[in-house]
Design a protein that fits this description.
Blueprint: H1 3-35, E1 39-44, H2 48-51, H3 53-70, H4 78-98, E2 100-104, E3 107-109, E4 118-120, E5 124-129, E6 136-142, E7 148-154, H5 160-175
Antiparallel strand pairs: 1-2, 2-3, 3-4, 5-6, 6-7
Helix pairs in contact: 1-4, 3-4
Length: 189
Amino acid sequence: MSTLAFRDLLFTLAFVGFAGVTTLLLVLTIRNRLRAPQALLTWTDRKVWRSAVWPAGFVMLMGICAVLAADGLHPFALWQVVGLMVCGMNWLAAVVLANTVLVTETGIVTNINHPERTIVWEEVADYFDGGPAPWHYAFFYQDAANRRIRQDVWVPRPLRRAFGEIVGEALEHRFEVATPESPRRRTLG
């Protein structure tokens, strides 16, 4: 077997493996999204671009390589580079879809592929909103190992009021504090 044939075999195996993994990742992410409860609100998490740096960079690199391959300046065939670019787009789509926040009647799904990051309303032990920063909420709950978990949720400006109403509806009745009557207490009026 010549060196060139061996290189082509290695590339083909790596390509098939990468194509299989990225396609499976996208299919499982879509399946998880379809299995999620009906969402009352959805938005893409602001941290998505931290996770998407590698797939986005890979897609851009493959775009540059596709231009070079089309001009005959790249050692790989155009179909190989375009195939890798499609795999990169599968990867990028899976990352963006997975980082979609879903607010449902049962809780908040912060990453569709990580069920341990789901905040279930009944499991919330405490929460607070950001006060002067109304786009930030922190929820405290216990996981299966009885560890206390803090999960921060950042809410985009157009959805803040609706999110606050949903959280209030789901949790306020659990955290209401009764104010005792005082003989000195008077109402303004």
